[in-house]
Amino acid sequence: MGEPKLLLPFRGKPLLEWTLELVESLPVTRRLIVLGAQAEEILCELLNPSRIMRHGHTWEVLINDRWEEGMGSSLRLAAQHVEGGMLLFLGDMPEVPEEAARAVLEEAGARPVAPSYRGRRGFPVYLPPSLRPRLLGLSGDIGARELIREGCRLIPVDHPGVVFDVDVQEDLEGGLVGVRR
Q1: Where in 57-152 does DSSP place strands (E)?
Q2: 127 lies in a domain?
Q3: Which tens digit of pLDDT belongs to each residue from 89-125?
Q4: Is residue 179 one of the residues assigned to a domain?
Q5: Mind listing the pLDDT tens digit for each residue in 140-161?
Q6: Domain tally, the chain
Q7: What angle is formed at CA 47 by the lines to CA 81 and CA 164, rounded to 5 degrees?
Q8: Residue 27 sits in which domain range?
Q9: More confident call, 68 vs 174
Q10: Does residue 181 lie within any of the structural domains?
Q11: Sign (positive or negative) of CA dihedral 151, 156, 162, 167
């Protein structure tokens, strides 16, 4: 998109702001963000380096210097810093409803959990502690998809925000208007 996507405006605020606010609304014990490309610009705009306070919540900031390897490298970095389960969000998914995130949290346990919209697995995804050894071995742009392909508990939700991500300029302008319901 020619500039840091996570800083582009979506409905009046930077794209990443939507995810940060959602995570801040949830009853979680730690908030960790992994940044890669354009990390410095994002930090200057939305956060402060290292360990920051934002709206009364502490965020731990990790910089993924190997971001070009793909999402697997970011998950690997997060797993190096988290021993328990992780609730995984993506910064380019601004319309995930809080209710879906809370439903996933309520079901968090020994197996992966994710919301689904019309049969499509969405976000956030809960990754249990048992997956940590495999997360530490991730590489490439696959992320955790293969790790949770089987055995993931899907929670049906009637909101396309759990599968909507911003990939092109039109997504920023239209939001869910362009998503088939």
Answers
A1: 57-63, 86-88, 113-117, 120-121, 125-127
A2: yes
A3: 999 999 999 999 999 999 999 999 999 999 999 999 9
A4: no
A5: 777 787 788 888 999 999 999 9
A6: 1
A7: 80
A8: 5-174
A9: 68
A10: no
A11: positive
